[in-house]
Design a protein that fits this description.
Length: 106
C-alpha cells in the first residue's frame, strides 16, 4: 500500500486498516508496557492512545511516517506515551507521600 493511500485510509478511519494495526501491533505494545512497570490494561490504554495520536498526526502537514515505517512509529509513540504516564504517576506519588514535610507544587 502506498503511503498516500495508507494516510488517506487512516484519516477516513478505515475499519480494515485499523483492524490490521490492532492485529499487528497491539500485542507488541501490551507486552512492552507490561514488562516496563505496567499491566495488560495499561497496555491496551496506551495502544488506544497511540492510535488516536497516529490518526491526529495524519491530519497534520508535518506528519513524518510512511506505510513502510509505521510499525516503528507506533512502537515509539507507545513508548513515549507510557514513559510520560509513568512520570505523571511518579509526580503524583511524590505529591501524596505522607513523609514529605511540605507539599510539593508541580
Amino acid at each position: 500500500m502506498s503511503t498516500n493511500n495508507f494516510i488517506e485510509k487512516l484519516k477516513a478511519g478505515d475499519r480494515e486498516l485499523l483492524r490490521d494495526l490492532y492485529k499487528d501491533y497491539l500485542d507488541r505494545v501490551v507486552h512492552w508496557v507490561s514488562t516496563n512497570s505496567g499491566n495488560q490494561e495499561d497496555g491496551y490504554d496506551i495502544f488506544h492512545d497511540t492510535l488516536e495520536a497516529l490518526i491526529h498526526k495524519s491530519f497534520t502537514p508535518e506528519q513524518n511516517f510512511t506505510s513502510e515505517n509505521i510499525g516503528g512509529y507506533i512502537i515509539q509513540i507507545a513508548k513515549n506515551k507510557w514513559i510520560d504516564q509513568l512520570r505523571r504517576k511518579k509526580t503524583f506519588q511524590r505529591l501524596q507521600d505522607p513523609k514529605l514535610s511540605k507539599p510539593l507544587i508541580v
